[in-house]
Amino acid sequence: MEGEGSLSFVRKGAWNKMEDELLTTCVQQYGEGKWHLVPIRTGLNRCRKSCRLRWLNYLKPSIKRGEFTEDEVDMMKRLHRLLGNRWSLIAGRLPGRTPNDVKNYWNTHIHKKVSSSHKEEYSTCAKSKKEIIKPHLVIKPQPRNFSTTNSTMLKMRFLNEDQSGAKNSQACDDTLITKYNDNNLDDKWWVGSTMMDDDKGCNVGVNNDLCCVQDGMLMKDLKLNDEIIKGLLEDQSWSDFLIDINFLDL
DNA sequence: AATGCTTACAACCGCAATTCG
DNA sequence: CCGAATTGCGGTTGTAAGCAT
């Protein structure tokens, strides 16, 4: 499946400067993607996975180095409560940060603090035994089949094609962000996270605490009424993709 | 100075999802 | 429609650097 075994010798471990330069030149020349061709094009004895990872986590010019700011850490915590260990999605909302960066930072800096504070919270709760914890109704994300007639999704994809018509198959979730970044609107990185506009300019987001997600599960919560639930379950169109949450309330 | 421990982060691995022929 | 190839993600591991003893 992986096909890496076909190479008689594949280098592992830390990258040296020359390898970095070769990889950078290759990506600048051919663009990102087609990673299976990179070892051939560069002559590097590295597997495609290694090349991709090195570029995305280290060599890519847009990568932001240095300490995470307080704002970034705060946002990371909120997004983690919302998304769980979806590092790529979290990183997508932290400009210049890679999923690996976010994951490493979380595991080394935050995870311990959070888990210990959770313990404290739990023990505090347990002391006041009067409090009854109701189990949440967990709505697991369902697999989706996109028909070719799903115009909105098609348009989202179309938007993400560059001028030469080359396809970029990123999920629609990232499409808006990519598009905004392309337009050098880095300060609008958050757009895709809270709302989506359809082609008629209609904001299809829903306001205020529709639901929350914990540990990767979509959970019925607070103000989610029966009608909305019914709609979500019956409607196979846009509405069931929408999670509109005020991060600041998390 | 030598040794052991901890931390941070780069890199690897396995698997699921997606794309392609 | 199906299977192979490819991509991308998240968990885990390896190791260099920093620190304490």
TrEMBL record:
Domain HTH myb-type, chain residue ranges per copy: 7-59, 60-114
Subcellular location: Nucleus
Subcellular location, principal: nucleus
Annotated PROSITE patterns: HTH_MYB, MYB_LIKE
Domain Myb-like: 11-59, 60-110
Keywords assigned by UniProt, alphabetized: Activator, DNA-binding, Nucleus, Repeat, Transcription, Transcription regulation
Domain of life: Eukaryota
InterPro entries the UniProt entry points to: Homeodomain-like_sf, Myb_dom, Myb_TF_plants, SANT/Myb
Any one GO MF annotation of this record: DNA binding
GO biological process: regulation of primary metabolic process
PANTHER family: TRANSCRIPTION FACTOR MYB8-RELATED-RELATED, TRANSCRIPTION FACTOR MYB90
Protein name: Transcription factor MYB90-like isoform X2
Record organism: Cicer arietinum
Taxon lineage: Eukaryota, Viridiplantae, Streptophyta, Embryophyta, Tracheophyta
